[in-house]
Design a protein that fits this description.
There is one protein chain. The chain has helices at 5-16, 26-33, 48-61, 80-89, 114-118, 122-136; strands at 21-22, 38-44, 70-75, 99-104, 107-112. It has 139 residues and is α/β, with parallel strands linked by helices. It has a five-stranded mixed sheet with strand order 1-3-2-4-5, sandwiched between helices. Strand 4 and strand 5 (107-112) form a beta hairpin. The radius of gyration is 13 Å and the shape is globular.
Length: 139
């Protein structure tokens, strides 16, 4: 059973206030990932590492001068079909929430798994993401 929307609305807003678009359906995921250029796709979560590390780190990283053309999110435990579809696209990567995937021209080029998030603070996550943005989103 999906999470109550009233419970997770503030967690969704933690990302949408930075201009991150919600992808609530498999069609949304396909439409976003298939765009030319770079797309940051975030699997959001109710867990503590999403709240205290991933979402703040993503917010900081999206202030960087070089960033993906599009940033989007699916919510584990709420956007169930969209999350399952994204995980199918990333089938070579173990399922993880939270997680962050950077796509370029429809192909994943950078993944930050939950295990990578748990061992870092928000500033370190932002630093990792901005390095990936510099590498894959510039020019």
């Amino acid at each position: 059973m999906p999470y109550n929307e009233m419970l997770i609305a503030p967690m969704r807003q933690d990302l949408t206030r930075y201009g991150v678009e919600e992808a609530r359906t498999p069609a949304d995921v396909d439409r976003l990932i298939s765009q030319p250029g770079t797309v940051l796709m975030i699997t959001n979560s109710v867990c503590g590492c999403a709240a205290g590390k991933a979402r703040p780190g993503i917010g900081m990283a999206l202030q960087h001068k070089v960033r993906p053309g599009v940033a989007a999110t699916v919510f584990a435990g709420a956007d169930e079909a969209a999350v399952a579809h994204l995980r199918g696209i990333l089938s070579d990567v173990p399922p993880s929430s939270p997680s962050i995937a950077l796509f370029r021209d429809g192909q994943p080029v950078y993944i930050m798994h939950r295990r990578d998030i748990e061992q870092r603070d928000a500033f370190q996550i932002a630093q990792q993401l901005t390095s990936a943005f510099d590498q894959f989103c510039a020019g």
